[in-house]
Amino acid sequence: MTSVHPPVVSYPLPRLPVPIEPAPELLSLARQSPVNLSLLTLLAHPAQRARLQAGPALLPGAVEELIRYVQLSSALPPARVTTEEVTLGGVTIPAGGMVFTLFVIANRDPAAFPDPDTFDITRQLGTHLGFGVGAHHCLGAQLARAELTEAFRGLLGRLSGARLAVGADQLRFKENMTITSLMELPVTWGAGDGTGQ
After folding, report:
1. Is residue 13 in some structural domain?
2. Are 68 and 1 in contact (CB under 8 A)?
3. How far is CA 172 from the centre of its chain?
4. CA distance 175 to 159
5. In degrees rounded to 5, what are phi and psi of residue 112?
6. Of 38, 65, 157, 168, which is most buried with the most CB atoms under 10 A?
């Protein structure tokens, strides 16, 4: 991940009234858990799942790797506007040009993560952008980490033989959501080829 800081300006945030009431959109985001896509990822990578089951001490690192690897958001981040001409990655962006920082792509940058498209629960992560950065860091990051940690702490002993109960092509995703989420994740236990068949 190349660290480039072009001159940019963010759109101003509106002032919030005091006291702050719970925002409906924040409550909606809290219900869109990262657990289902993370469990799907573990089901799709049985060797990593077995490694985690054999070494529960790997759980904190596995949670961070899940956050890095799984694309939780399908929304475009806030636009930035260049205040002067700048060149990024060999492309010149004129003053007044819009720039979008796609964190999910940064999390797959081979300059930052060796073999970035491989899911590896033993990966030594320095930092990732799974929850954004700076002023745009996700307010629910710690809640999501806690949800993932506790969900998998409780599920680890129950994941042996777990597999999708349907083919991956039959999974349905919630539509028009900021956070990518499955409608349901049908799982079954026992022998099978892992395709739900």
Report:
1. no
2. no
3. 18
4. 28
5. -105, -30
6. 65
Q: Scanning the structure block, which residue is given the tokens 């993370």?
A: 38
Q: CA-CA-CA-CA torsion for 89, 95, 100, 105, nearest 10 degrees?
A: 0
| Residue 10: inside a domain | no
- The candidate with the shortest Cα–Cα distance to 160, out of 58, 62, 46, 45, is 46
pLDDT in tens, 115-150: 999 999 999 887 888 887 787 788 888 988 999 999
Per-residue burial over 19-48, b = 16 or more CB atoms within 10 Å of its CB, e = otherwise: eeeeeeeeeebeebbbbbbbbbbbbebeeb
User: For the chain, what is the domain count?
Assistant: 1
Is it true that the peptide bond before 7 is cis, omega within 30 degrees of 0? Answer: no
CATH code of the domain covering residue 176: 1.10.630.10
CA distance 87 to 85: 7
pLDDT digits (tens, 9 = 90+) for 62-102: 999 999 999 877 666 778 888 999 998 899 999 999 888 77
Residue 4 domain flag: no
Domain with 83 in it: 31-189
Q: Where are the alpha helices (DSSP H) in the chain?
A: 24-30, 35-44, 46-54, 59-69, 103-106, 141-155
Angle made by CA atoms 158, 163, 166, in degrees to the nearest 5: 140
